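Structure tokens
________________
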Amino acid sequence: MPRHLSPDLRVRFAPLIGAFCPLILSGTLAFAVPMQNDPNGFEGIPWGAAFSETDTFTKVEDTGRAQTYELKTGAPSLGPAKVDSMRFLTVDGKFARVTVRYQGKAIHDQILAYLQSRYGSLDRTPGQFTGGPVKFYSWTGFESDINLRYETATDRGIIFFESQELRPKITEGNSPTVF
């Protein structure tokens, strides 16, 4: 703590510093990149579209307001990369989010290159992009957000493609302590 701060201010700032230091040290902080070519959906399916079981999708979860679907066909892929799972979420019957899970450094590198080629290059300015056990990447558009989290220790990644308009409905009614 700077010595020029009064003891009272040092006591007030100590919890803040204690809270933020682990966050900064535990992961890579990356700032959202303005998205080029906002898809307003995922792979040609617009946000808000009606969803149901079809030859392409099967319902795997129904929690009332939210339904989750998976592809019926074999292993899903994102661009050139085969991924472990791809789930499509609807809220009140409207398409709102896709969650993609994958594993492996090679798959991560393929996915990251694919996302950058479609939605814009990441900011690699020193200080904006650093190393750490957890890396976060984000692209923000007018209609869509893409957020990727990759854990280097386990080589696992998760990506959320979301509708900005429908995001609040996804968490509506959840307890404030639910992440």
